[in-house]
Each structure stands twice: as structure tokens, then as C-alpha cells.
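In response to reviewer comment 3 from the previous cycle, which asked for concrete evidence that the modeling workflow produces usable outputs, we include below a single protein chain processed end to end. The sequence was submitted unchanged, and the resulting C-alpha cells are shown without manual editing.
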Amino acid sequence: MLDTILQASTQSLTMKDFLLCTICSLGCGAMIGWLYMFRNTYRKNFVISLVVLPAIIQVVIMMVNGNLGTGVAVMGAFSLVRFRSVPGSATEITMIFLAMAIGLATGMGYIMFALLFLIVLGSAYVLLQVTPYGQQSVLEKSMKITIPETLDFEGTFDEVLKRYVRKCELLRVRTTNMGSLYELQYHIVLKKAGNEKQMIDELRCRNGNLPIVVGRVSANKEEL
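The workflow returned the following C-alpha cells.
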């Protein structure tokens, strides 16, 4: 069932086998594109690239077909592509590797193996997306406090934060408004959800009622 449909010799490649592998590659690419779009922000040109990438890899593998020198040259060409492109998110890199794996399988004629692998991996991906596995805690927040330049922020907010926050880390301090104000950026983990308003009200009493921003932690760490 999982055997290759191609013969060992390069000369035995037929138009029927080529079209069958190509159609399978494009079909798998369309499924990979759907997986990437599932509960994710996407760009049309990247989705189209995911659809055609398995077919491109398949043709390359069919042309190499055991030739060591050609295989090394192709590997070098693919390694250059990575350094000529901008860094992508973890999801984009994962989908690119999945498309390349499917293209390798179909290029060697393992069509049933490629389909089975895509079904299993795609099902696992969808299941992980719809479940809270790996989801960021709602208690983890990013907070910015603006203070006047005359206020010594060392220890000023400790008493308030101890009542509402389980973990607190001052990430950076920067000047704003031509140096007349300071902006303190914290990474905090709340003790209890729904206490943001009370905490902000008490902090406002200590920073002269200047702006305080509490929001989600930045997801920039997702980039590979």
C-alpha cells in the first residue's frame, strides 16, 4: 500500500506516473494551504506558494533520481533560498517544511504515504488549534506606566503590585514627551482575572493620573 509507483530506472518515468504524482502534489498542496489558513491570518501569495511548492519539489526529486552530484547541487540551491527570504512565523516555516516533505514523498512515487502523512499531521494540527493546548495564559499581561520625570519610580508601585500581581518584571524604561515623562514597561502575571481596573485605579493615584496601558504580551517571539 505504501510502495512507490515509480520504477528504479530514470528511463521508466512515464507521462501517466508524472501526471499522477503532480496531481497528488497539487491536491496535497491545496490541503496544506487550507491548514495554513485555518484560524490564522494569511496572504494570498503565500497560500498559492504552499499549493505549488510540493509539485516543484516533486519535479526536482524526479529529475535527481539517485544522482549524487545533482542532489548536492539542488541542496545548495535550496539552502540559498532561505538566506534570500525574510524570516517567517513559526506557522509559515512549519507549513513550508510540510510542503517540502510532501513533495519529497510524491517525487519518489510514495503517493499513499504522502496522503496518509498529510492526513495524520493535518488532523493533529487542527486538533491542536481548536484546543487550548499551548495557549497563552489570560493572566499574563504587558503593562506600561507613564510617570513624571520628578517621580522616583524605584519602589513606588511595589505595594500596589504585590496585591494584584503574582510575578512582575520591569523590562525597560524610556523617556517620552521631550524627556518630561518616563514610560515604564512591565511584564506581569496577575493573581486573579478581572482585577485590572482596581489595580489601574490604585496605580493612577501614584503616577499623577498619567496614562497606564495593560494589554496582551507581544507575540513577536513566534518568529523563527
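Residues 15-37 form the longest helix (23 residues). We consider this sufficient to address the reviewer's concern, and the full set will be provided in the supplementary archive.
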